[in-house]
Design goal:
By secondary structure, the chain is of the alpha/beta class. Helices cover 39% and strands 18% of the residues.
Length: 281
């Protein structure tokens, strides 16, 4: 029997503790490295910038306020909303905006007595992109008309059928207009220096240039230019068909606003927002 005591054994629990600490350290290092590689969060998520005239507002006051802001503008290059005094063809819009950087145009088919959809068409090259965008809208309107006809055929309610038939008629007329490159453009989103924007405001056919230096991202901006035919208060286009059918006339639901991609530019991301057309659209 040996008189020497046995060497102390390391506790198994202590070894497991050190192993757990080492694993935790590895996980922490990996997490830190991944965080460094991750892009900074976008602080503008959820924010929407609105430019134009709001529903129910005075159009003369809007024109005056936009003019005053343009006169005082001294920021570098920035966006602006250009409204025309009339509906223009793609070629006429290109002439009116010649030499100006354009991002998009706003259009609608001005059918007398009917609300029509307001469309925002991405357009970097005028008039080519506008014509292409209108062709895309025309195709969508054809499908919309077919859907209305299908719904009309499937319902036994005569009043509902009348509504569907009317929707199909409007969609067909919109498709035909856009397919021919109609005089439907009534506003544009541009970017330029203050002096260039002031010069643009003085061109024939330009109703107002509303500076928007606060706009940073077009996909998170809503533009509501005044309709050319409205001179007093911003409101949805009058819809006499609804009034004759016992509806609410010009206070009925306003047309939606959608975006059409330019053939040379990426389509705007989903969630770009649809401006409330009450004032313009």
């Amino acid at each position: 029997m040996s008189d020497h005591p046995a060497p102390p054994r390391r506790s198994r629990s202590a070894a497991l503790t050190w192993l757990a600490l080492a694993c935790a350290l590895v996980v922490l290092v990996v997490a830190v490295e991944q965080r460094r590689d991750r892009p900074a969060s976008d602080r503008t998520v959820g924010e929407v910038t609105r430019v134009g005239v709001t529903g129910g507002a005075s159009i003369p006051e809007y024109l005056r306020a936009a003019g005053d802001e343009l006169a005082r503008l001294d920021t570098p290059d920035g966006y602006a909303l250009v409204s025309f005094a009339d509906y223009l063809t793609p070629a006429r819009a290109a002439a009116a905006l010649d030499g100006t950087r354009v991002s998009a145009v706003v259009a609608r088919v001005p059918l007398p007595g009917r609300q029509t959809e307001i469309v925002r068409i991405a357009a970097l090259r005028l008039p080519r992109d506008v014509v292409a965008g209108m062709a895309g809208v025309a195709g969508r309107k054809d499908r919309e008309a077919a859907d209305y006809r299908s719904r009309a055929a499937a319902t036994a309610d005569p009043e509902l059928r009348r509504v569907y038939d009317s929707g199909a008629d409007v969609a067909v007329r919109e498709a035909a207009a856009y397919r021919t490159g109609c005089a439907c453009v009534y506003a544009a989103v541009v970017s330029a220096t203050p002096d260039a924007l002031r010069a643009l405001a003085g061109r024939p056919g330009v109703r107002v240039v509303d500076p928007a230096p606060e706009v940073r991202r077009l996909d998170r901006s809503v533009f509501t230019p005044p309709l050319p035919e409205q001179r007093d208060v911003a409101r949805p286009p009058a819809d006499t068909w609804h009034a004759e059918a016992g509806g609410m006339g010009d206070s009925s639901e306003a047309a939606r606003t959608v975006s059409g991609p330019s053939p040379t530019a990426p389509a705007p991301p989903a969630g770009s927002g649809a401006p409330n057309p009450a004032p313009t659209s």
